[in-house]
Amino acid sequence: MSQEGEQEQSDRKKYEFRKVIEDLKDFEGSGTQLVSIYIPEDRQVSDVVQHVTQEHSEAANIKSKQTRTAVQDALTSIKDRLRYYDTFPPENGMVVFSGAVDSGGGQTEMVTRVLEGPPQPVESFRYHCDSDFLIEPLEEMMADQGLYGLIVLDRREANVGWLKGKRVEPVKSASSLVPGKQRKGGQSAQRFARLRLEAIDNFYQEVAGMANDLFVAKRHELDGILVGGPSPTKDEFLDGDYLHHEIQDSVIGKFDVAYTDESGLKDLVDNAEEALADAEVMKDKKQMEEFFEELNAGDLATYGFEQTRRNLMMGAVDRLLISEDLRKDVISYDCEECGNTDREVVDRRKSTPAHTCTECGSDVEATEEDREDAIDHLIEIAEQRGTTTKFISTDFEKGEQLYNAFGGFAGILRYSTGV
Ligand SMILES: [Zn+2]
Q: Membrane-spanning regions, if any (predicted)?
């Protein structure tokens, strides 16, 4: 699969996960009876089944009959789901939620959700039984998954590594043979200075080589490079154009750090916090700026559900822009009288409204099957037409406008359609 394709998949997956998380947050158990299980990819499913079986028999000791039944039902439901898996869970592991949730009017309802292959690996096995589902670890996995290259150096030592999501991964280090400032007796001052500069230059080349080896192959996935060290070392290093030009262009900031060992990589990330947050939003900002340019001065912008959908169907949309905060359903009203189809976008929590056909004026009823998630609806068309989907945060003005003023849906076109 192409990198673009993988990115889209993960965007869509993130959206699916976010939806489930929101649902689960709304559920409150009426006792300690909601079960959450985090399963790493290297954990045998049979082990997990055994654990669940054990919990099931221990649950027999729960005094309240209602709670006991609820927990045991949840565990049985989980065991039923686990039966569909082979020896090991899917890549990155999986998370299972099950429990009896309050469905109003004193009634409870059994809910089971299985999330396969989260955007980041499940790190450790967790079994959790409480009045709430355990959502936080999953939310952390959903947080920005950026990939950044890290370089820390002074004239004696250097380390390079990755920042993957929130994890710092040291990869390689080097130390230099650059002599100190004190020259030995008998050496001419000039010769000493020249040798020292040469040694520094060699070391910078070595560090750049190390960084290039690591980062150049991943340059299309990289969200940026951070460089740390004391002044003026990091400035000399950057100003001297030692890095591969594409890597050099990806440098999003240089920061003072006290150490240049592995702990320096962590310092670098701490000190770059603001720049990292900006870089995340910057990607979204660029998309929205292009959209507004087209809207004001070009003819390659579209917005609103219906217009965007029509352009998508024509295969004319290059990038579909969807507000990250949007939670809407679309209802398709198929008129039996004249064959016309109208669509209405409604709030996720609103019931399906009555509708009058815009062509012939007949009353049209819609069933549950005519209603679906509006984002899923558009992404499905986008995937068939080779359109890239971008989720846009509302943490900046133009992102907020996408949500408020443009209905949360917009697109940048490949060619003008007049729609
Ligand atoms: Zn009609």
A: none
